[in-house]
Write a structure and sequence with these properties.
With about 210 residues, this protein is an alpha+beta fold. It is built from 6 helices and 6 strands; from the N terminus they run ααβααβββααββ. It folds into 2 domains: about 45 residues; about 160 residues, no CATH class.
Length: about 210
């Protein structure tokens, strides 16, 4: 019995010794470790370089005459100067962004629009960031229509483009049909929403080549 125990212990010691020896002889591959670290670091740096920023705002056309015309007055309509001042806010946001980041080439990357037909509230969001096509886009404008369709929008574009320097590029074409819950005087219908109206707006950025 004792000899059997001694034999088992001897075999156990041999196995443990071999395992320790194998570990000692196994050397880490520094190149793989470094490459992995550099890859991870590169991904983190890339994400930090994105530096996109969102500019947002909102306004409501409730109580405004010509309520659905006022609804798509993203900047300012001529009749009463009502609007969301989106152009001015984007321009101010770009100036601050350039100052804070040191970026010389700016891109207006995306526009998101949400309209609540039950309150005539418009929420908008514009994403800006570094430009990667050699142009800087620092001018922004839009034209639209309530009920006139895309043709009514397109007729206004050449005139709008003439007010800006740089190459126009379409950023976003908003096109949504919403229920009509308000009268044209901006007061809510007492008998509920009736019918629909199509709201369209085309948002453009204007680019200048940067050497």
């Amino acid at each position: 019995m004792k000899s059997l125990i001694r034999q088992v212990l001897k075999e156990y010691i041999n196995i443990k010794y071999n395992l320790v020896e194998q570990r000692a002889n196994t050397k880490p591959n520094p190149s793989k470790t470094i490459k992995g670290a550099l890859f991870l670091k590169g991904k983190v740096l890339d994400s930090l370089k994105t530096n996109d920023e969102k500019i947002s705002g909102s306004y409501s056309a409730e109580g405004k005459s010509g309520a659905y015309d006022a609804l798509h007055s993203f900047h300012m309509r001529a009749s009463d100067r009502f609007g969301g001042r989106i152009n001015s806010k984007v321009k101010e946001g770009i100036i601050k962004y350039k100052k804070n980041t040191g970026e010389k080439k700016i891109d207006i990357k995306n526009v998101k629009i949400n309209i609540n037909p039950n309150t005539l509230t418009v929420n908008w969001e514009v994403t800006i960031g570094p430009s990667k096509d050699g142009y800087t886009y620092e001018e922004f404008d839009s034209r639209g229509s309530a009920g006139g369709g895309e043709g009514a929008v397109d007729k206004q574009l050449s005139s709008m483009h003439s007010y800006h320097s740089g190459e126009p590029k379409l950023v976003h074409h908003f096109n949504k049909t919403i229920p009509v819950c308000y009268n044209s005087n901006g007061k809510k219908k007492t008998d509920g929403c009736k019918g629909t109206i199509n709201i369209q707006q085309k948002f453009y950025k204007y680019g200048k080549k940067v050497k």
